[in-house]
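Readers of this paper often ask what the protein records in our data store actually look like. Nothing more is needed to write down the fold, since each code stands for a local backbone conformation. Below, we set out a record of this kind in full and without editing:
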Amino acid sequence: MAAADAALLRMNEALARASAHADTYMFPRYRTVMPLAAELVAGSSLPGAVAAIALKRLYGHLVPEDVRNGTKWADDYLRDLSKGVVSLGGLDATVAQPGGRMVSRVVPKAFDWGSY
């Protein structure tokens, strides 16, 4: 029973660390609405991504290559989520979008001293 309790504690700690890791990606884009609503999170791939990252971290430094390859999508998903490439759903309409750039040109004004 003690081994099962220790394993459960280790798994919960890994999930908490993976969740905090996901928050670092999401905070710049979703800071005004965090913590996110449970139904929004449940309808996205976010829980699976956090679980995949937690699984990978449970291996420590000895992550097998097939596990690393199988969980790579989770890191890609978080990166794309932070960039706005993928979305959590309808919430993105109210979330501040990343800043853009605008360029404008005006005709240079010249004062003709000769015709003054």
